[in-house]
Specification:
5-stranded antiparallel β-sheet, 2 domains, 23 strands, 6-stranded mixed β-sheet, single chain
């Protein structure tokens, strides 16, 4: 099979197809075509979820669910047409990478591994139920609306992790919050400035939230909070509620002399903060409303809020701020593996937004560690046999679809694995080729024994 084993060929097909969350019809149809070409039973629902089934060829009655999501986070440093274009990718130093955009290896590479397992007639397998879901990166609509009566298995391998040799054995839930403020603009006779914060590392609001990457919206809010007569004209930062914002821009007015605070460089070495005078704006948001917005940002707790030992238990990401049709919109995600703490911080955000409109948009469930897991034991055993290395068990501070599966399938045994992915949800996202090959071989050996 050489360096390019089957999963990588499928991954290159995935890279050709637009698949931003909510725009999965084309990739969903590709999966249907795959099932037809390989003479496999399939089911495609109105949400574009696809289930593909392969019958056992080793006289096994065992049923294993293999799962991945077909959507991706789409961010870019350029004006990129994700709706109509695939990913402009290349290979460098043993990695698949993208030019100026996210790669979509999360979770295209997991889905590609599953396709290779379904198509490989040279391996012995149990009954496979392959589930490909939509909108995991946004609403988890696919997993929520899936027809679970189509599934018979109660063992689930989700290939939606980020690190080879690690089994993710629990996940965090996530509450999505939106805070709106209707704006009032008044005449302005003060100087007008543009402040920009960029150069931060960004990243995933779950797996990277404890890495002190910095939050550009929070930083710009703090800088403006200390300018007592600052009136916002416009503000824009962040791309998704589940992405740590690496940049933010605000045009504002003030009669003060504005100086750049360079002390943030000591904390975030890659940060850039710039302030420049721009053409005077005739109108700006009134001072009272501007202060309400800036006080909300100032008082909002972000990043990791509580730990369970050294593991993040509850966190908050200030993901997006923007103005649309004279309404300020702020998008926030609260992650937790503790129901009481999740409620506590939802209530805190609600209290802080007392002069604004608070909306709880969505809540996604978590799944907890299963003490007795034959599937986990088998994965550990086969990895050691292949690579003479111990598998690590990780609790994950991120929302995984296993939490939704857990609500629908009684006593389900869930393990989440992956090849090595780095800097997911960012333009630096990449996946290690040889790691994909190793994980594919690992799964082949697991399926043989099942």
């Amino acid at each position: 099979m050489g360096d390019k084993m089957e999963p990588l060929n499928y991954f290159e097909e995935f890279l050709k197809i637009p698949r931003e969350s909510g725009n999965e019809k084309e990739i969903s149809n590709y999966l249907v075509e795959f099932a037809i070409e390989n003479d496999l039973e399939y089911y495609q629902d109105k949400y574009n979820n696809v289930i593909i089934k392969r019958k056992s060829n080793n006289n096994s009655n065992e049923v294993i669910i293999l799962q991945g999501h077909i959507d991706m986070v789409c961010t870019s440093t350029i004006n990129y047409d994700f709706k109509n274009k695939g990913i402009d990718w290349y290979i460098e130093d043993g990695f698949y990478k993208a030019k100026n955009t996210t790669l979509g290896a999360d979770n295209g590479i997991g889905c590609s591994i599953i396709l290779a397992l379904l198509a490989n007639k040279n391996i012995k397998v149990p009954n496979i139920e392959a589930v490909f879901t939509v909108e995991e990166e946004t609403t988890m609509l696919g997993a929520k609306m899936l027809d679970y009566s189509k599934l018979n298995g109660n063992k689930l391998i989700s290939i939606d992790g980020t690190d080879e040799g690690i089994i993710e054995v629990s996940s965090a839930g996530m509450a999505s919050v939106c805070v709106d403020k209707k704006l009032s603009y008044k005449d302005n006779d003060a100087k007008t400035y543009k402040i920009t914060v960029d150069g931060l590392l960004g990243g995933h609001s779950g797996t990277d939230i404890d890495k002190k990457h910095g939050n550009a919206i929070k930083i710009i809010g703090e800088l403006l909070y200390n300018i007592k007569d600052a009136r916002i004209v416009t503000i824009e930062g962040g791309s998704k509620e589940n992405v740590i914002p690496g940049e933010c821009m605000c045009i504002f007015t003030s009669n003060e002399n504005i100086n750049v605070d360079n002390s943030y460089k000591n904390i975030y070495p890659t940060i850039n903060i710039s302030v420049e005078s721009v053409e005077e704006c005739a109108k700006a948001i009134d001072i009272s409303t501007s202060r309400t917005i800036l006080e909300f940002i100032h008082n909002l707790p972000i990043e990791v809020l509580t730990y369970n030992g050294s593991f993040p238990q509850t966190s908050l990401n200030l993901g997006v701020i923007k103005i649309e049709d004279e309404i300020l919109k702020i998008e926030i995600s609260i992650r937790s593996s503790n129901v009481d703490e999740e409620k506590k911080y939802i209530d805190i955000v609600n209290e802080l937004s007392k002069d604004m409109e608070f909306k709880l948009i969505d809540r996604k469930p978590f799944f907890s560690f299963k003490e007795n897991s034959p599937l986990r034991d088998l994965l550990i055993k086969k990895y050691m046999e292949l690579y003479n290395k111990d598998v690590q068990l990780h609790h994950v501070h991120a929302g995984l679809e296993g939490g939704v599966f857990k609500e629908h399938i009684k006593d389900i045994d869930i393990c989440v694995i992956a090849p090595n992915l780095y800097d997911i949800h960012s333009v630096n996202e990449r996946v290690e080729i040889q790691s994909v090959n190793r994980v594919y071989k690992w799964l082949i050996e697991v399926l043989k024994e099942l």
